[in-house]
Amino acid sequence: MSAISGRSICVFRDLASLSRAAAGRFLDVVRECVPARGRFAVALSGGSTPRTFYSLLASDPYRKEVDWTKVHVFWADERCVPPDATESNYRLVFETLLSAVPVPVENIHRVRGEASPDDAARLYEEDLRAFFRGGQVPVFDLAVLGAGDDGHTASLFPGSEALRESSRLAVPVQPAAGRPGRVTLTLPVLNNAAHVLVLVSGPSKASVVQEIFEAGNAKHLPAGLVRPVNGTLEWLLDRDAASQVRSGPSGGSGA
Ligand code: 6PG
Fold it and tell me: What is the DSSP secondary structure assignment for residue 42, as one 8-state letter?
């Protein structure tokens, strides 16, 4: 584990060892939160990288280490497609995790992807404000994010208006013409989390990771704008994703 530009970074031999480390971090935060607050609120991402991590959580020994009745599951972002669509982040998490662990249905706070992006974002914001009563900006116990080749995270894309949002918790975004709309948590919410894990794997991510960590001007790269105000930030990378970071992060426990 080392720190570069104020971000802790851990490099693992491969996606499997990165995923085991992520599952370990998940348990650490659950063990910290549930005794203290009686619950654990997590925001999960879509994409391919977290699949193995979600599947690990659904299997022993991790599964039996968690009181799933205390877990509240939210999404960092969602594609505006029905929940059974292949592109649905809800479906991804349901198939790899929720279908195998006893999280009460009322603790599953999915984005209504079947609605229009505007309606889905509005309904999601209502759910967030109802759950995180009192505070202006929700404090997730853990946010699990990824990074796209273009430096996007959640559905915060480079140059997107959504990056400038300062009061709404969730907003609709239109990634590209012809693509389904999306709903994303905004930067104030992500940067208010108690713990943030960014999971990144594969050679296609190497140049954007290098730019975020070494080219000080990563301001145009949304994943580089994730800087928890009062929380921890940990980037878990596999060797391919870290291959262009010259400042030589030392190996993670699984390197
Ligand atoms: C999504 C994600 C998105 C993802 C990145 C990385 O809905 O697609 O939430 O932000 O984390 O695109 O995706 P990969 O893990 O597939 O590279």
Answer: E
Burial profile 43-52: b = 16 or more Cβ within 10 angstroms, e = fewer: bbbbbebbbb
Helix (H, G, I), strand (E, B) or coil at 186: coil
Q: What's the pLDDT band for 136 if we cut at 50, 70, 90?
A: confident
Distance of alpha carbon 125 from alpha carbon 141, whole angstroms: 18
pTM score, two decimals? 0.95
Residue ID of nearest Cα to ligand 1 atom 7: 46
Q: In what order do the strands lie in the sheet with 77-79?
A: 77-79, 182-185, 170-173
156: left (phi over 0), alpha (psi -120 to 50) or beta: beta
Q: Distance from the CA of 43 to the center of ligand 1, in angstroms?
A: 13
Mean local confidence (pLDDT), 207-228 = 87
- Which of 77, 87, 93 should be mutated for ligand 1, with most atoms under 8 A from CB? 77
> DSSP character for 108?
B
Measured by CA distance, the residue closest to atom 3 of ligand 1 is 154
